[in-house]
Design goal:
The chain is of the alpha/beta class and about 200 residues long. The chain folds into 2 domains: about 60 residues, no CATH class; about 130 residues, UDP-N-acetylmuramoyl-L-alanine:D-glutamate ligase (3-Layer(aba) Sandwich). Helices cover about 45% and strands about 15% of the residues. Strands 1-2-3-4-5-6-7 form a 7-stranded mixed beta sheet, sandwiched between helices. Helix 2 packs parallel to helix 3, helix 6 runs antiparallel to helix 7 and helix 7 crosses helix 8. It is globular.
Length: about 200
């Protein structure tokens, strides 16, 4: 773990995004992702964290720029299970305030995703596609969000790219595989609605 943290410190710089996703490496302490976030912030980089359980609650303390969960993980982590999309967005906005967080993305499987910032809330409507394999769709969405924000896109544009990337992944048999052509094809079809909260 120490060697990995040293690599992060050596390679990350201002204007970079660090994307942390998935389970902890075997033998890593529950504070490992928090340590990665702290190093990234010391180097001037921004962080999106997409994990669950104790590593996630540890990571919250380091205030990553974006936290990403699915609906069930949100309910288990914060003890809230609102019914509708608007109610979920309102609950997420309160969580942002309570934890002094910048932004949260909540994936909703075939129903798309929510993005809640301190200023705005958005619903990204899922495209109706015949799913081959959804594994990695959320990771593709995370990569698209961080890349597009790093390029200066606003949240609406970043979310259109994210919705298109996630949709492109579900068409392939592999994990997190997709074609750029599919992303380009789907992007104009992705609807992002600003929510009145």
């Amino acid at each position: 773990c120490v060697r990995f943290l040293d690599c992060v410190a050596a390679r990350v710089s201002t204007q970079d995004w660090v994307l942390i996703a998935g389970s902890l490496p075997e033998g890593a302490p529950e504070t490992f992702y928090r340590q990665v976030i702290d190093i990234a912030h010391q180097k001037g980089a921004k962080v999106l964290v997409d994990c669950f359980g104790k590593p996630f609650t540890q990571a919250l303390a380091s205030k990553p720029e974006i936290v990403k969960l699915n609906r069930a993980e949100f309910a288990m982590t914060f003890g809230q299970a609102p019914e509708g999309v608007l109610e979920l967005a309102k609950s997420a906005r309160q969580v942002l305030a309570d934890h002094a967080l910048h932004a949260m993305v909540i994936t909703l499987a075939e129903d798309g995703m929510l993005a809640i910032t301190q200023e705005s809330a958005y619903s990204v409507h899922g495209l109706k596609l015949t799913e081959v394999n959804a594994a990695g769709a959320g990771d593709a969405a995370s990569a698209a969000i961080t890349y597009r924000l790093s390029q200066g896109d606003d949240w609406v544009s970043a979310l259109q790219w994210a919705g298109a990337a996630g949709a492109a992944v579900v068409l392939t048999p592999g994990t997190a595989e997709c074609s750029y052509e599919d992303i380009i094809r789907f992007r104009p079809q992705v609807q992002v609605e600003r929510l009145p909260i």
